[in-house]
Amino acid sequence: MVPERRIRRKAIDPGLSTIAFTYDRRVDEPTRRRILEYVKPLAVGLDGMTYSGDVDRVVAASERIAGQTPAIDPDLLFLLAVFSGQERWVERMGHASRTEIFLSSVGIREAAVRALFRGLPRIRSRPATREEEVVHDALALEEMGAHGIVRLLLEGYRERRDLLEMAEAIEQAAGRALLTSAGETLAEPRRRTMREFARRAREEHEEFRGPASGG
What we know:
Number of strands: 2
Structural class: mainly alpha
Low-confidence stretches: 1-24
Radius of gyration: 20 Å
Helix content: 55-70%
Strand order of the largest sheet: 1-2
Number of helices: 10
Strand content: under 5%
Mean pLDDT: 81
Largest sheet: 2 strands, antiparallel
Distance between the termini: 83 Å
């Protein structure tokens, strides 16, 4: 049996809450695969923009950022990253209980599940732990760079925006702040890509713009 590991972590930054819970480390590779198999069908089609591969990308980005971030619980980080795009599904009536039962069946401790459910609604807007900050930044990176440009163009096309409106949305997305130094380092080349694209889009729009109609 895997020995129980106690984690007591006090926030270093004033904005981070103190966490104290007992967590039995059982998220080995077979368990991770089972959790991914549970989550990926939920990810597809929730917003018309998400694909099952996006879950893997958020997990990989979270682990890259966490590698340079102190005092990170890797198992809780994995759970937050995997479920980070499914908070709306989890919040629906009965689905939280279903997810809790599933996680319990694969050996995830109750305290970790509670930490997961507390974190999901606030990851994007007000993350309160280091793990939540890391996943916040991983989600932000998914919406930046070439990957983010494609997403915003698809969204703009769906909402019938014109090119200038899309360029504005891309530039605004490039300016979003990340919360970790590792996330900022990864974001910087993506910002340059987005700003260059927005600039070129405006220039090309103006290049062949017809004369303004007047009375």
